[in-house]
Design brief:
The protein is about 35% helix and about 25% strand. With about 260 residues, the chain is of the alpha/beta class.
Length: about 260
């Protein structure tokens, strides 16, 4: 479904990600893990053509279902984003206009992809919130983002991202701004999305516990390069890479028991 071959990403002609490779299948959950600044978010932003500050892919290929995304026009990008590929940000609320109510934002989003009435778009948004098990969907549609908790904002972001049942969901630290109880709820919900819709998920996280719980495959990044990679079982139990071992040792333990 998604294949990156020798991808190099540069800012002002300085490579920050070098020779990155990924071959991801439909319905697979892959996590990019590593310390801050290792290039994880840069990779997923490149996939969706959203590199900030003049960043650009200076080498390699990004193929989605056999088509090179690097050849896309702006119009093709607009059609792709939010339909076949969607993205959830670290704090979805921070990406929403605080002067507009959730219902207005959600309706605008739907109307960019469908030619339906505002009422039909509003009703569709409400149904998606209910599908994400958000209580009082009508009340949420009539609320501003700052009136919602962090967990509720993330669920709204997931609901928007899943409106058109994308084939690929990109998630940039989707749980890091949440308390541990809400983290667990969001993680379970994302796994259910894969199980129910066969959506592939490529997730950026520094939380190895989250990655270990939900991922089929893990890629460990360091200084813009792939340091280690393999199945969940390999990374957690068999990897001989020293950096991977250090990351695993850094995961907190509770009562002497380690939860990765």
């Amino acid at each position: 479904m998604l294949k990156l071959t020798d991808v190099t990403i540069s800012y002002k002609n300085v490579p920050t990600v070098k020779n990155f490779n990924l071959d991801m299948k439909s319905g697979q959950i892959v996590s990019l893990v590593g310390e801050s600044g290792s290039g994880k978010t840069t990779v997923i932003r490149a996939i969706l053509g959203l590199l900030p500050g003049g960043g650009k892919v200076t080498g390699g290929q990004i193929l989605f279902e056999g088509t090179d995304l690097l050849s896309y026009t702006q119009n093709q990008w607009r059609k792709l984003r939010g339909s076949d590929i969607s993205m959830i940000f670290q704090d979805s609320g921070a990406m929403m206009n605080p002067t507009k109510k959730i219902g207005h934002i959600f309706t605008e989003y739907i109307l960019t992809h469908e030619k339906i009435s505002k009422k039909e778009a509003w009703d569709k948004g409400t149904r998606m919130l209910e599908r994400m098990r958000l209580p009082s969907a009508d009340h949420i549609m009539d609320s501003y983002s700052f009136q919602l908790s962090g967990g509720m904002r993330q669920r709204v972001g997931i609901a928007m991202g899943m409106t058109y049942q994308p084939k690929l969901l990109l998630a940039d630290e989707p749980t890091s701004a949440l308390d541990v109880t809400t983290q667990a709820q969001i993680v379970r919900q994302m796994v259910q999305l894969r199980d129910n819709y066969h959506t592939g998920i490529l997730m950026v996280t520094h939380n190895l516990g989250v990655a270990a719980y939900m991922s089929d495959y893990l890629i460990v990044m360091k200084n813009g390069k792939i340091e280690d990679q393999g199945t969940r079982e390999y990374i957690l139990n068999s990897s001989v890479n020293e950096y991977t071992k250090k990351l695993l040792k850094a995961v907190p333990s509770l009562g002497g028991e380690r939860y990765v």
